[in-house]
């Protein structure tokens, strides 16, 4: 990026691309600059000076990128900003942010919100809040979450649900986490389950949401606009692995409306038009 000479230039830079905050000189990182940056890219909370981390800045950051809760000052900081409001906003955006929620704030409601977003978040739920219903929700969201369900709650029904909902490559893992007395029955149930196209589509979507690079392995017949839009509503990072022909104007506008951070993966030729149609200011052409 070009050399930043003053706060005005710093503000302009982060408004166009929040990730630029990491390159802004410390003396130019004002409250206004940092707030503008996290509104565009919540992950840059990491680069906000501790003395400038306010409730407003932290809340805006975790709303965009829930995993940034790890950068929110906690109980061992001079000011504890991990409030119920900020923690709940974080887990609603990224379920595994529950790991960084103080134990005293891990209420049933916050744990439910986390597991609703990411089944694997059940591993961060206090035992006293783990119910059969929560376990079922976790396994429906992510079959591999069966490995974090307390053994006493790994019923035959739940294990069959996990086996029938997992990707083919994950079946051995699910079976290994099934109580021995159920393993044969669960294995047979999975083998006899007729998995139609709807199941396969959902399984691929879950795979992409767990590992964005998996988008490169999704069969072409499933890479429809609807499939991509469903995925981008949950996590836009997979866009970096899409071939150019799938980064259409319509899809990119949808993605940026969902999260301005997706703009990073929009082709340069489409960026101005996408920002305009998505309701964001057009980036001026500074090329010479």
Structure in words:
- With 288 residues, the protein is mainly α.
- The protein has a domain at 215-280.
- The chain contains 13 helices and no strands.
- The chain has helices spanning 7-16, 31-40, 55-64, 84-93, 108-117, 132-141, 156-165, 171-176, 180-192, 197-210, 225-234, 249-258, 268-278.
- Helix 7 packs across helix 9 (180-192), helix 10 runs parallel beside helix 11 (225-234) and helix 12 (249-258) packs across helix 13.
- The longest helix has 14 residues, at 197-210.
- The protein is flat.
- The two termini are 15 Å apart.
Quick recap:
The protein is built from 13 helices and no strands. The chain is mostly helical. The C terminus is likely disordered.
Give the number of DSSP strands: 0
Q: Could you give a short account of the major beta sheet? A: none
Order of helices and strands: HHHHHHHHHHHHH
Mean of pLDDT:
89
Distance from N terminus to C terminus (CA atoms, Å) equals 15 Å
Shape: flat
Report the sheet-strand fraction: under 5%
Our Rg estimate from Cα atoms comes to 22 Å
Computed structural class? mainly alpha
Query: Total helix count?
Result: 13
């Amino acid at each position: 990026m070009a050399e930043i000479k003053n706060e005005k230039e710093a503000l302009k830079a982060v408004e166009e691309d929040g990730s630029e905050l990491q390159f802004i000189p410390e003396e130019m990182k004002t409250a206004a600059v940092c707030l503008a940056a996290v509104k565009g890219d919540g992950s840059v909370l990491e680069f906000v000076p501790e003395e400038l981390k306010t409730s407003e800045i932290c809340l805006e950051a975790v709303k965009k990128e829930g995993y940034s809760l790890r950068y929110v000052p906690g109980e061992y900081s001079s000011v504890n900003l991990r409030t119920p409001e900020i923690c709940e906003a974080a887990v609603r955006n990224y379920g595994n942010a529950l790991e960084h929620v103080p134990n005293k704030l891990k209420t049933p409601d916050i744990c439910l919100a986390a597991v609703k977003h990411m089944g694997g978040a059940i591993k961060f739920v206090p035992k006293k809040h783990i119910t059969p219903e929560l376990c079922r929700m976790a396994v429906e969201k992510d079959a591999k979450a069966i490995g974090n369900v307390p053994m006493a709650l790994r019923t035959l029904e739940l294990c069959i649900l996990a086996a029938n909902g997992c990707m083919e490559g994950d079946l051995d893992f699910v079976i290994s986490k099934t109580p021995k007395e159920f393993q044969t029955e669960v294995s047979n149930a999975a083998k006899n389950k007729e998995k139609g196209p709807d199941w396969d589509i959902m399984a691929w979507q879950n795979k992409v949401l767990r590992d964005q690079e998996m988008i490169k392995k999704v069969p072409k017949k499933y890479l429809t606009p609807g499939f991509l839009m469903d995925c981008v509503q949950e996590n836009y990072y997979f866009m970096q692995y899409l071939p150019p022909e799938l980064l259409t104007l319509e899809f990119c506008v949808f993605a940026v409306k969902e999260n301005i951070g997706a703009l990073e993966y929009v082709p340069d030729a489409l960026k101005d038009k996408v920002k305009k149609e998505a309701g964001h200011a057009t980036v001026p052409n500074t090329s010479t």
